[in-house]
Amino acid sequence: MLAVVAGVVLAAPVPASAHGALTNPVSRLAACGAEGDSAGMAACVAARKASRNDFEDWDNLRLPNVDGRDREVVPDGKLCSAGLSRYQGLDLPREDWPVTTLTAGADLTFAYRGTIPHKGTFRLFVTRDGYDPTEPLAWSDLETKPFLTAKDPTMRGGAYRIKGELPSDKTGRHLIYTAWQNSDTPDTYYSCSDVIFKAAKTTKVAPSAGESAPATGEVTEAPATEAAAPPAAADPEPVSATSALPMIGGGAALIVLFGAAYAILLHRTRRDRRG
Ligand SMILES: [Cu+2]
Questions:
Q1: Residue 140 Cα, ligand 1 centroid: separation in angstroms?
Q2: How far is the CA of 18 from the centre of ligand 1 (A)?
Q3: Which of 90, 94, 158, 258 could bridge to 80 as Cys pair (CB 3.0-4.6 Å)?
Q4: Longest Cα–Cα distance in the chain
Q5: Domain interval for residue 260
Q6: pLDDT, averaged in runs of 10, over the chain (275 residues)
Q7: Distance in Å, CA 122 to ligand 1 centroid
Q8: Which pLDDT score is estimated for 223?
Q9: How many angstroms separate the CA atoms of 21 and 59, rounded?
Q10: Is residue 26 part of a domain?
Q11: Do residue 157 and residue 240 come from a single domain?
């Protein structure tokens, strides 16, 4: 009996047990999956129904042995499912997919949630001008070269963080297609993320914008609001407010002390929260 079980296990190509999906900007599968924020949206309901799948396995959209031949192996019109019938609802051409608004040309820390870590290379493609979400997605709809490539990025807070620059020449509705080709398994994972590029404001977005991008599938505006706080709190030494204080004896010293203690505390809390 034991031998039979062992034989079966050996005969099957040993699959990696789990995996991941792009969560910032959120992918269709991460948004519509069991742990996604948008599972109740009409597009997600339709996608699960068409796939006959509750997307409990939102982190498992992968093909073995593609080896970089994505365009040969994944059929046109089925890019978002990678041709897998249990995900075919992700290919539905519709314009009401959960969508993330991004600033063209801005720096962004992409997040790819990894439920079990793997080694590998991420390649992120963007759609060409004139992309229409109501048409089936074909390879010819994507720019030939990835706008971002990352090998073995750092995992932090349960997600790979990939710092990059968004394409600067895109406006309006687009799709970001991510392929994660593992080097420690035979698998390549695929994700479709629906985005809207808005034009950059007059000045360039600060480089640290997006640093505190959410780890889970959260549909967000361009993450500029949260980015202002962490750098100041991270370094308790040169608290700029104290240098502006006139030296008025013991009282000022106390204020400086409390300020430094508070900054350190704040730093700790943030780190804990990030895990
Ligand atoms: Cu895996």
A1: 29
A2: 3
A3: 90
A4: 83
A5: 235-274
A6: 40 53 98 94 98 96 98 98 98 98 98 94 98 98 98 96 97 98 97 96 55 42 36 35 39 45 38 32
A7: 14
A8: 39
A9: 5
A10: yes
A11: no
